[in-house]
Design goal:
Layout lengths: L16 H13 L3 H4 L4 E2 L2 E5 L15 H7 L16 E2 L4 E5 L4 H13 L3 E2 L4 E10 L9 E9 L3 E3 L12 E3 L8 E3 L2 H11 L8 H7 L5 H4 L4 E8 L7 H13 L5 E5 L2 H11 L5 E10 L8 H5 L10 H21 L1 H4 L7
Helix pairs in contact: 4-9, 5-11
GO molecular function: catalytic activity
Pfam family, one: NUP
Keywords: Signal
């Protein structure tokens, strides 16, 4: 009962009156738990990277370092139980974390962060950021791609090619996974992202330029650009022209755009975000650091295990490109929060 609260108990008659008065004043002015509780951080944009090579700053950059140096060099890490690493936030509401590689690793981290009461994601935008592969028919090293669709490569039936009609796909979708296996990202948000970044000057390297010439494809030989298309999520690091054709087959089977990026996390993260806040504010941003198949003069195994000096090159430039492109969108949203807070504005 209310009158059993210590502040309502009558002081003993032997208490000094002044002491009793002080006790009552203390009760009257004691702050409530609600008033002293720390308000959750209102997240405007959350950046999700999958791995960092070493430290967050000062050494060779992985997927997170350029973002960290731009937004969180002075931020205090916030530990989140169940997440791979801490979350960093700045005063503008831009937060980010390394979630881990693969579907299970990344999605479990994302769920732990989304459900943690230290953060308010009710109005947040999301940028899934990382490196990836690309088919030489549609992309090149150091490209940066905005996802239009996220498609799961694994949810279905697959069998050995020798047990199949020669040349036919060795994949059949499994019934019951229709809402889990592909996500169309908000076309208006993709349009905003492309228009804000299509003219970003991208870094390139001599080693990448030389490596591209091993491929006959026009797309593979061009300079890096900002592109868009389907991002294919698979825990299997699939490789070779046959697997690449199968990825394109799956994309078209699901009614998605051309497959342009192979990665390992985005569809799983999208499902977690969809179940909590929806995917209208979700973006997938990937930089191509390898082709998904060898050139015509090498086998798939040779491409997977190249000799020293035979790698694509351009990794450092690509991770920088991803941040150059992504930060332009993040900065625009934060700078114009009044227009973006209620949802993606009309163009």
């Amino acid at each position: 009962m209310l009158f059993n609260h210590p502040c309502f108990l009558r002081p003993a008659r032997w208490l000094v009156p002044a002491l009793a008065a002080a006790s009552i004043m203390g009760c009257a002015t004691a702050p409530s738990a609600t008033a002293t509780a720390t308000a959750p951080i209102r997240v405007k944009v959350f950046v999700a990277a999958m791995f960092e090579i070493g430290k967050n700053t000062g050494d060779r950059a992985g997927e997170f370092q350029h973002w960290y140096e731009r937004y969180w060099k002075d931020a205090t890490p916030i530990t989140v139980p169940g997440a791979l690493g801490p979350v960093y936030c700045n005063a503008d509401g831009v937060c980010g974390a390394v979630l881990g590689m693969g579907k299970v690793n990344s999605s479990s981290s994302m769920q732990a962060i989304l459900l943690n009461p230290k953060f308010d994601f009710a109005e947040a935008y999301y940028v899934i950021s990382g490196v990836a592969g690309t088919p030489p028919q549609r992309g090149t090293i150091a490209d940066v791609s905005w996802g239009t669709w996220l498609v799961d490569y694994d949810l279905g039936h697959r069998w050995a090619p020798e047990e199949n009609t020669p040349g036919a796909p060795t994949f059949m979708p499994r019934k019951g996974y229709e809402e889990y296996r592909r996500f169309q990202l908000n076309p208006l948000l993709v349009d905003w992202a492309m228009n804000l970044t299509v003219d970003v000057p991208l870094k390139d390297s001599d080693s990448a330029r030389t490596y591209r010439l091993r491929y006959p494809d026009t797309a593979a030989r061009r300079s890096p650009a900002v592109t868009s298309g389907t991002h294919m999520t698979g825990d299997t690091f699939f490789h070779g022209p046959g697997m690449s054709r199968q990825a394109q087959y799956i994309a078209k089977l699901y009614g998605a755009d051309d497959y342009v990026i192979t990665e390992m996390e985005a569809a799983a993260i999208a499902l977690v975000v969809k179940r909590t806040h929806g995917t209208d504010r979700l973006m997938s941003l990937r930089g191509a650091v390898n082709f998904d198949q060898g050139n015509p003069n090498e086998t798939t195994l040779q491409h997977l295990d190249p000799a020293p000096g035979e790698t694509a090159g351009g990794f450092a430039e690509t991770v920088e490109n991803v941040a150059l492109v992504g930060t332009r969108v993040v900065d625009h949203i934060v700078r114009n929060w009044g227009q973006w807070q209620g949802g993606v504005p009309a163009r």
